[in-house]
Amino acid sequence: MFGVDSNVLVRFFTRDDEEQFRQAAQFFEGAKDRSLFLSVIVLVEVNWTLRRVYQRARKDVLQTLDDLVHTRQFVIEDRDNVARAIAIARTTKADFSDALIALRNEVGGCERTATFDHDALDIEQMVQVGALLK
């Protein structure tokens, strides 16, 4: 098994550097009989880069992440919570990253996750910092 860095996925999805796209495509094709590991950090970086740097539409990036989760070749760290985070992001204003933070914190034993992010408050496991000070 090989791990895959976010920049390999971004080059493959954006095709903004033709040589790196070609190499990424060759790598994925050459590794088709082997598992490729995607950490949650890589998925968060891919989400952030495609949304902020490349200005990709939220629904398109969520579909890209969902496609990765459902591609057999990829071993996804914490696959179930990644899939749940995608579902939360699709049905709320919360970002994929915030949903994943909340879910992973819950698994880690957290009662709630404190935030200042108003959109993240759509996530059941999140709580506004000010509410904890009362």
> What distance separates the N and C termini?
49 Å
Number of domains: 2
Total of DSSP H or I helical runs spanning 4+ residues: 7
Low-pLDDT windows of residues: none
Classify the secondary structure makeup into a structural class: mainly alpha
Major β-sheet profile: 3 strands, parallel
Specify the helix fraction band. 55-70%
Strand share of the residues? 5-15%
Average pLDDT metric: 96
Number of strands: 5
Task: Write down the Rg.
Answer: 16 Å
Strand order of the largest sheet: 1-2-3
Secondary-structure element order, as H and E? EHHEHHEHHEEH
Give the overall shape, derived from the CA principal axes: elongated
Structure description:
There is one protein chain. With about 130 residues, the protein is mainly α. It folds into two domains: about 80 residues, no CATH class; about 40 residues, no CATH class. It contains seven helices and five strands, in the order βααβααβααββα. It is elongated. The termini are far apart. The model has no long low-confidence stretch (mean pLDDT about 95).
Layout of strands and helices, then pairs:
Elements: E1 2-3, H1 6-14, H2 18-30, E2 36-38, H3 40-53, H4 58-69, E3 74-76, H5 79-91, H6 96-107, E4 113-115, E5 126-128, H7 129-132
Fill in the keyword field for this structure.
2 domains; 134 residues; mainly alpha; 7 helices; 10% strand; elongated; three-stranded parallel β-sheet; two-stranded parallel ribbon; 5 strands
Q: In short, what is this structure?
A:
With 134 residues, this protein is mainly alpha-helical. The protein is 57% helix and 10% strand.
